[in-house]
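User: For a teaching handout, I'd like to show students what a predicted protein-ligand complex looks like in token form. I'll give you the sequence and the SMILES for calcium ion. Please answer with just the structure.
Assistant: Understood, here is the input followed by the structure.
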Amino acid sequence: MPDLKVIFEDKGLSKYEIQEIYNVIDINLDGAIDRDEYDKFYNLFLSKFISCNPNNNFELKLTEAKNCFMKESWMKRIQKSYNDNNATIKPIDQIFDIMDINKNQNINLSEYVFARKVSFVFRKCT
Ligand SMILES: [Ca+2]
Ligand SMILES: [Ca+2]
């Protein structure tokens, strides 16, 4: 199994961001990442993030996020409601801005995982 801490540090994530990601991966909260936890994280988060990020620098620029998210059914639904109402603002720009917590015009893995986690929690509330 890859040493995620080393990989994440190499990709420029801070200790705090790495810890936040670990808290998501470590489902049983025993402080260690086992193969099952890693596989779940990979399938739910990492594989998607990597596929959105062809140059593998672990940061999605707006154009990369657009190319990726606009293919998703959830994004198409949001876009359709804006189109139906002749809105001039672009929802992808707003979503990108919300996901880009530190406003550096890139979405890193930590920001991506946080947004996915929050959207999942809200979906469970409804
Ligand atoms: Ca664990
Ligand atoms: Ca950012």
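For the handout, you might add this sentence: The domain at 4-125 is CATH 1.10.238 (Recoverin; domain 1).
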